[in-house]
């Protein structure tokens, strides 16, 4: 049975942009100073969360001798150099341009703040102008709670020009807490996890579809215009 979706919302980090390696490298650089290891288990706890929340989790879990504010300042010093090198992930540009060409309303909802988003998208500004709007959850006053809460996706849905039933919205996510957020918002979700991410039964049950790459997505399976061949 084809699921009929009319609007699409995308996460950014690890989904459209290959930034997760950049986040890992910048985080591990800080951890190295204190002999700590940034494990995938820890990374899974912070993926998709706002910067302040990440800083508190990192300093608490690893026992770093830094305040969350100091942690943010140190990581930003590293990220300022490497974030502009972020590249689009396979399949991202083809899918977004396809949906835009066919007038499918598309938006971005990311846990990023404006500082990091502007750096990461610096070399892809024309691409990100294709979206109807962007919700930066860390900065947006209407987003009270970060993922796995549904706030970011619900705010993104509200800002489309036409009122839309959440069940008609398709979300693309790479992070487990993003899948949970989409599910909590009453939306369908295509989960594109990194190979290292643990796919628990709880998260798998909340995803409508699990893919290894955006390149494998078949638009017509969700009532969207097919790619032309």
Instruction: Name the helix and strand elements from N-terminus to C-terminus, one letter apiece.
Output: EHHHHHEHHEHEHEHE
Radius of gyration: 17 Å
CATH class of the largest domain: Alpha Beta
Which sequence of strands runs across the widest sheet? 3-2-1-4-5-6
Largest sheet: 6 strands, parallel
Strand content: 5-15%
CATH architecture of the largest domain, please?
Answer: 3-Layer(aba) Sandwich
Q: Distance between the terminal alpha carbons, to the nearest Å?
A: 23 Å
By DSSP, the count of extended strands is 6
CATH evolutionary superfamily of the largest domain: HAD superfamily/HAD-like
Describe the global form.
globular
- The CATH topology of the largest domain is Rossmann fold
Q: What does the average pLDDT come to? A: 94
Any idea how many domains? 2
Specify the helix fraction band: 25-40%
Which structural class is indicated by helix and strand composition?
Answer: alpha/beta
């Amino acid at each position: 049975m084809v699921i009929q979706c009319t609007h699409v919302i995308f996460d950014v980090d690890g989904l459209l942009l290959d930034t997760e390696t950049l986040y890992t490298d910048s985080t591990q650089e800080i951890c190295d100073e204190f002999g700590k290891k940034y494990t995938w288990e820890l990374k899974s706890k912070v993926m998709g969360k706002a910067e302040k929340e990440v800083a508190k989790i990192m300093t608490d879990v690893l026992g770093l001798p830094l305040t969350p504010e100091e942690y943010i300042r140190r990581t930003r010093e590293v990220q300022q150099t490497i974030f502009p090198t972020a590249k689009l992930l396979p399949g991202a540009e083809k899918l977004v341009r396809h949906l835009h060409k066919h007038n499918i309303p598309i938006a971005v909802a990311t846990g990023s703040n404006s500082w990091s988003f502007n750096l990461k998208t610096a070399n892809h500004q024309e691409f990100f102008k294709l979206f109807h709007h962007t919700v930066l959850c860390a900065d947006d006053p209407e987003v009270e709670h970060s993922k796995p809460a549904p706030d970011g996706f619900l705010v993104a849905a509200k800002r489309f020009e036409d009122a839309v039933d959440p069940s008609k919205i398709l979300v693309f996510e790479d992070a487990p807490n993003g899948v949970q957020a989409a599910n909590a918002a009453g939306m369908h979700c295509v989960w594109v996890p990194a190979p290292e991410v643990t796919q628990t039964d709880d998260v798998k049950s909340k995803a409508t579809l699990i893919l290894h790459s955006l390149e494998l997505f078949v638009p017509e399976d969700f009532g969207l215009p097919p790619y032309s061949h």
